[in-house]
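Entry 14: structure prediction run for Calx-beta domain protein. Input pasted below.
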Amino acid sequence: MRNIKSLLRLLILLMAGVSLQSNAAVTVYCCDANAEAQYIQDLAALQSVTVDLTGESFEGDAWTSSRNTTVFSVTNQNLTWGGSSTGVAGIQTSMGGGDVHEGEYLMFAVDDTSTHLTPDKITLTANGITLYGVGGWFRSSNGAKLAFTTNGDVVDFTGAQATVFDWKFLGFIDDGGFSTLLVETADEVGNEVKTFFSDDFTIAAQAGAFPGQDLQFSSANYSVNENAGSVAVTVSRSGGTTGALSIDYATTADGTATAGQDFTAVSGTLDFADGETSKQITINILDDAVFEGDETVGLLLTGTDVGVLNNATLTIIENDVRPAGSVEFSGSSYRVNEDAGTLSVTIQRSGGSEGSGTIDYAISDGTAIGGSDYNATSGTLAFIDGQVSGTFDIAITDDALQEGTESIVLNLSNPVSVMLGDRDIAEVSIIDNEASPAMGSIQFSGSTYSVAENGSEIALPVVRISGSMGAVSVVCTTSDSSATAGNDYTATQNTVSFANGEVIQNCRIPIVDDSSYENDETLLVTLSSPTNGAVLGTTSSTTVTIEDNDPVPAAGSLQFDQTSYQLTEGGSTASITVSRSGGSSGSVNVDYATVDGTATAGSDYTSASGTINFAAGVTSVSFQVTLLDDAIYEGDETVSLVLSNPTGGAVTGSADTAQLTILDNESAPATGALVFTASEYFADELDGSITVSVERQGGSTGAAQVNYITSDGTAIAGADYAVASGTLAFADGEVSQSFEIFINDDAFFEGTENLSLQLSDPFGVTLGDPASSVITIADDDDPPAAGALDFSTNSYSVDETGTSISVTVTRSGGTSGAISVDYATLDDSATASSDYVFATGTVNFANGESGSKTFEVTIVDDSLLEQDERIRLVLANVQGGAVLGALSESFITISDDEAQSASAILGFSTGSLSANETAGSVNITITRSVTVSGEISVDLSASSSDAVAGTDYNVTTGTVRFANGETEKTITVEILDNTVTDGNRTITFALANAIGTAVIDSNSGTLTLTIIDDESDSGGGGGGGSMGSFLMLLMLCAIYYLRLRGFRVCTACSSGRNK
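Run finished. Output tokens:
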């Protein structure tokens, strides 16, 4: 029996040793409730202790508590001590993991009042070693952190014992190093000792052995010229020079200088030898050519013997000249009416305004002609010190010719004492004020057309609007896109002619019918060179799609079964399926590869490439992409998947590229989100500028930045406002930044106008809502006496069964004089002649007439099932002094009247899925396409030869019902994680018995789900390292020994897997 107890005691000690995870010898603190109390005698010479409340939080929380009454005596660094208590049932002892380093504190508290006599008696045997009082802290009952110090006074215990009365907090170290930190306190009733351990204090072996000595910077501030190359920072030693001391140093990111650009970051340890009084830290200074002003670097010392000056600042004194700045046009485009007389162009100076400088400007012809349309001048613009903008004027000639909008080009060159900015070229548009020619404008009737490959040719309607007087012509020219001239169509450059009064002609393009399978291809057709006063309309180019009529080759078409995949970052593997359709004759190959998108191979996933082989008759093959799990929040990232080089007569299909999205599994840091402070800002035209603010919400940790830019709405850059773009930088903790947009106050009535604002490319932060905004500029100019013309609304609607719709044009702001405006319909998604009848004409208002006028647009009712379609409406060519208002464009929406009579097609969204056994669940999706009207249903079944329902998975099968308009259903499959090594298992899901106007797609009516086993079959136990194996062996030996002695021992844990 004695042997049994000894063996079990050994097992307990071994298990306790494993739990502590120590880097050095493990120290165990315990007490014996029945041991004789021992007293420490005569400590009157000790320094009094001052206790301060700091309010810091307790940091050493990685410890557990247990009760034990076993006596242990511990010798550490030749210092032997033990704890004892009497009169209590037991003492609570806290123990736990964490490194036990050489150079840590032993510190304890004793209470020897009459009511708390025995729980805290500690016996120290110094064995001739000198002990020093040190500082430390302990946790109080109200949750505060209390700090104390004994100022390093010597405490000599040699040959005597002493008793401490009242509360005293003492710490001890010996010459050889430090032992573990210990705090003992008694509660109010004295029935237990609470013991706390902490590894917060990690000190070098000899640190603190020479009390009163300090290591600190020689000054709180240092400075160095940017071109000095390096600077030496001095660390001084005070309070004595006996012995060897050391201290850690580092540069920090607290200053305004940037490591790697302004200086080289350093860190390390300074070792002071016995008698050494100072050491130096060398920091390399990087000299750039950029003016940044003086910048600072933070310096920090850390360690046990650090003095008061443990922080210092190094100032790098700028040696570059303050920049004179760069000059550029305030906008890339300007707009001026032909009758305005002059245009004032602004050149702005940014990035500095030091000193004076000059820039040359020049004006040259675009489509406008110098001397006829404007006064072609050049000159030099001078900037004085501090000046940030300047202007020059361009004289505009108001002729009586109808020319349409014309352009001139502005150039900046030859900067002197300033730099040339990015916008050194700009364009001025001169808006013609003459009426549109009676000859009209010529354009395509639509922006896209399609033709079958065997259609021999396509006739593209070219229409003449806003006038049909006289004979005019235009050149129609083809150019390659994905279609190739000579192989897919005949290159064409034809002249399309209109006789007097003619409004429609065709541009004919021959189509080449080959026998190769190529997918659909496109070509571009452009109109140019109008003659005899005609002009080009808005749709002067169009795209023609040639629809392939050749069958997929017998060897088939190879493509991804989905265009997008996604999987959570968790060290899992994405299974990518390549399918073969249209034929499966013979053996074929295709190469596959991954390409970085926003994800990076090697850090986010493992690059994969190779060749997939399809044997004769095989229609799908998969390859794997392994995802790598990191601990960095990056947001969702993407990988591109590419198929290439098909062989064996096969071709790649349209889905020869796909995207894999890696869903991040880390939580977003509290860096916040950047948003505009308003979704709409308001400014008057005469304000001159508006300030726009961007806020950081939901967190402000770390530095961040975001780009901003303006874009035209109804307001035009250069004419109504100056383009603004740039980057806003947020320092750590900063929550607001702003930028300014300059408003141009012109003399034209334009009505209320707007421009758009957009945030983009956030760094170190995300974009919130709103990340876009609008500035509305209120016009300060009076409307012309003749008024403004608009559509009554920006959107009209009509049923396809309606024969026509009335469109209203209104006159507002003035009624002086007779005025007119041209109107026209243009294709949007609706097509002239098949969906509506092309309409064009003129609306007239008499002198004094206000209110509205209407014109009719005829709707064509076809028998095709289509989506709702739109017609574009435009007003142009105002006569009589009136202007166009804000609603000079509108749309008509035609609602289709055909019944959704086609059958719905049902199928799975993918043919295969895979999930780890630990995934918990996976979703499968049934989709409904072609038509979504009406209620339908379909039966779902699941079957498997190796996966067992209820053991490996759970899923609800049976009838799946789609409501009217519903396009997909999601079924959740619960994955059950067992501990059996049973390999990968597959479940086949199938659709059957479609009810209602629905059919099941034969290519997507089944789905295979693979459950990937997460158990390895490499030893059956998972192993626990050499200590785990040793303990298991030892435990089995103990069980065998007990059985030999006739004891009954439960062995359920040794039977392998639980059943």
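Notes: The first strand starts at residue 50 and ends at 53. Will compare against the previous run tomorrow.
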